[in-house]
Design brief:
The complex is a heterodimer of chains A (115) and B (112). Chain A contains no helices and twelve strands. With 115 residues, chain A is an all-beta fold. In chain A, strands 2, 5, 6, 10, 11 and 12 form a six-stranded mixed beta sheet that branches. A four-stranded antiparallel beta sheet of chain A has the order 3-9-8-7, with no helix packed on it. In chain A, strands 1-4 form a two-stranded antiparallel sheet. Chain B has 112 residues and is mainly β. Chain B is 0% helix and 47% strand. Chain B contains no helices and ten strands. In chain B, a hairpin with a 6-residue loop joins strand 8 and strand 9. The chains are: A mainly beta (115), B mainly beta (112). The interface between A and B is medium-sized, with 27 and 26 residues.
């Protein structure tokens, strides 16, 4: 069965500093890969997704993620964090079946931004 | 609608009562999912509907939980004889293809 690991439960960065959130997955083949963000009291918003092709994916709000097949990783990055980025971030995978299938989520990383 | 709509946004219920949570997916989305997010926990898959296929109920935690999807659109998640451990945020999502998952804002359920 597929699984997703986000090893960092909580990360604190200063505003303006760079950010990298880690995500590793376990799956028999390359799955669909996603990053979602959840602000307090809100639902999940899609930041970016990877299916195939260029391994560096650009998303909304200045985020990007890089797929590394050899490491089974899909880490999220942002060059300069803004205070409004404080939220919880979830990595997720879905089978590469071509049709919709259930997402498996990591346990999330809570990002705190200090001014 | 433009997004996935869930109602109510908040629900407080007494232990032992039944509750119904509603999800209105994006029009035309064939797949609908329910997830549960407990305090300090990740997102736990509950049930998944895809078109006219039999739903994947593998994530339902007990037989007190059930869900239906009428007319391939609106879905209702029912929790019978609620327990305090059922307190959580229940999230619904819909999609047409594997790349189009859209989540609602959730229903926060509190069992007192």
């Amino acid at each position: 069965a597929q699984s997703v690991t986000q090893p960092d439960i909580h990360i604190t960065v200063s505003e303006g500093a760079s950010l990298e959130l880690r995500c590793n997955y376990s799956y028999g083949a390359t799955p669909y890969l996603f990053w979602y963000v959840q602000s307090p009291g809100q639902g999940l918003q899609l930041l970016l997704k990877y299916f195939s092709g260029d391994t560096l994916v650009q998303g909304i709000k200045g985020f990007e993620a890089e797929f590394k097949r050899s490491q089974s990783s899909f880490n999220l990055r942002k060059p300069s964090v803004h205070w409004s980025d404080a939220a919880e971030y979830f990595c997720a995978v879905a089978p590469l079946t071509g049709t919709a299938s259930k997402l498996t989520f990591g346990t999330g990383t809570r990002l705190q931004v200090t001014l | 609608g433009a997004g996935v709509s869930q109602s109510p946004s908040n629900k407080v219920t007494e232990k032992g009562k039944d509750v119904e949570l509603r999800c209105d997916p994006i029009s035309g989305h064939t797949a609908l999912y329910w997830y549960r997010q407990s305090l300090g926990q990740g997102l736990e898959f509950l049930i998944y509907f895809q078109g006219n296929s039999a739903p994947d109920k593998s994530g339902l935690p007990s037989d007190r939980f059930s869900a239906e999807r009428t007319g391939g659109s609106v879905s209702t998640l029912t929790i019978q004889r609620t327990q305090q451990e059922d307190s959580a945020v229940y999230l619904c999502a819909s999609s047409l293809e594997a790349d189009g998952y859209t989540f609602g804002s959730g229903t926060r359920l509190t069992v007192v």
